[in-house]
Amino acid sequence: MTDPRTQATRTQMDTGGLGRAAPSGWAAFAGILLLMIGIFNIIWGLVAIIDDERITVGPAGLVLWDVTAWGWIHLILGIVLFLTGGGLLAGRGWARWTAIFFVMLNAFGQIAWITTYELWSVLIITLDIIIIYQLTARWEE
C-alpha cells in the first residue's frame, strides 16, 4: 500500500509510456519562483543596459555608477534562471542543482546593489533564499 501523502505530491504524467514523474508541489513552487526571478533579472538587466548611469550618496559625496556591465550580467543570469525554472517545472534532475548554484550566485550579486537599490535587493535575496530552501529541504526524491 502506498502512502497517500506521497501520492499527493508525486504524480505520473502521461508521457507515452516513458513513466516520467511530475515535480512535487514544492518543486513546482520553486520553479515558478525561479521563473519570476529570471524575469526580474532580465528586466533589471535591460533597464541597466538602456539607462546605464546611477547616482548614489556616499560618505565622500555623490557617486556616479556606470552599470552597463552589470546589466549584461543580470540579463544573461536572468535567461539562465528562467530556463532553469522551466527545467524544474519539467521535472529535470539537472535543474535542481543548477538552480541552487545560480540562485546563490544571484543572491551574492544582489549584495553589490544593496546601497543603490535597497528594497529591490532585499526582495530578490529573500526570494532567492526561499528558492534554495524549497530545493534543498522540501524536495521529494
The main sheet orders its strands as 1-2
Low-confidence stretches: 5-19
Largest sheet: 2 strands, antiparallel
In terms of quaternary structure, what is this? single chain
- Total helical segments: 5
- Tell me the strand percentage band: 5-15%
Structure commentary:
The protein is mainly alpha-helical. It has a domain at 39-136. 65% of the residues lie in helices and 9% in strands. It contains five helices and two strands. Strand 1 (53-58) and strand 2 form a beta hairpin.
Condensed summary:
The protein is mostly helical and 141 residues long. It has helices spanning 4-9, 25-50, 68-89, 93-111, 118-136, and strands spanning 53-58, 61-66.
Name some characteristics of this structure.
141 residues; mainly alpha; 2 strands; 5 helices; two-stranded antiparallel sheet; single chain
List the helices and strands and how they pair.
Elements: H1 4-9, H2 25-50, E1 53-58, E2 61-66, H3 68-89, H4 93-111, H5 118-136
Antiparallel strand pairs: 1-2
Helix pairs in contact: 2-3, 2-5, 3-4, 4-5
